[in-house]
Known about the structure:
- The protein has helices at 3-11, 37-40, 98-127, 140-152; strands spanning 17-31, 45-59, 62-75, 78-94, 163-165.
- It is α+β, with helices and mostly antiparallel strands.
- The protein has one domain (15-155): Bacterial Protein-export protein SecB (Roll).
- A hairpin with a 2-residue loop joins β3 (62-75) and β4 (78-94).
- The termini are far apart.
- Mean pLDDT is 89; it is low at 5-11.
Amino acid sequence: MQDKPQQKLQGDANAPHFEIQRLYVKDLSFEAPNTPQTFVEDWKPEVQLNLETKSNRIQDNLHEVVLSITATVTTNKKSAFLIEVQQAGIFMISGFPADQLRQMLGSFCPNILFPYAREVISDMVMRGGFPQLILAPVNFDMLYNQHLEDEKKGSKSQEGGDTKVH
């Protein structure tokens, strides 16, 4: 009976496989240039959010995906704070066709990274003395598909499913 499970494992060697190896903050920056004046003025925040994803192959079937989020918050037309985070992950991905691999790197992996980046941003903003900033969910599938459409229209092609949104 032990031979059958081993045979099954060998038969599945080319089957699609996805595994999270590591999640980490690659870079983090928080700036509040107009404190303490910002704290005594009326709080009327305006948020500008920029997202970008990049991926690169580390080794065969091992990929790093980096989700970069920059949130710029102004109040009364003055900068309140700027936070930048690069939330990254190392993913083992094998057995997927090239187009599915690209979608995994450009959409699926950023979906995994986003809640971690959102938590880092919320925590750092509160540590900076400001009201909690909770980012709305992001539809990375839609952003990825939009990126593909932009490529079809003649935009510059990028490797690995990299996307950038403002």
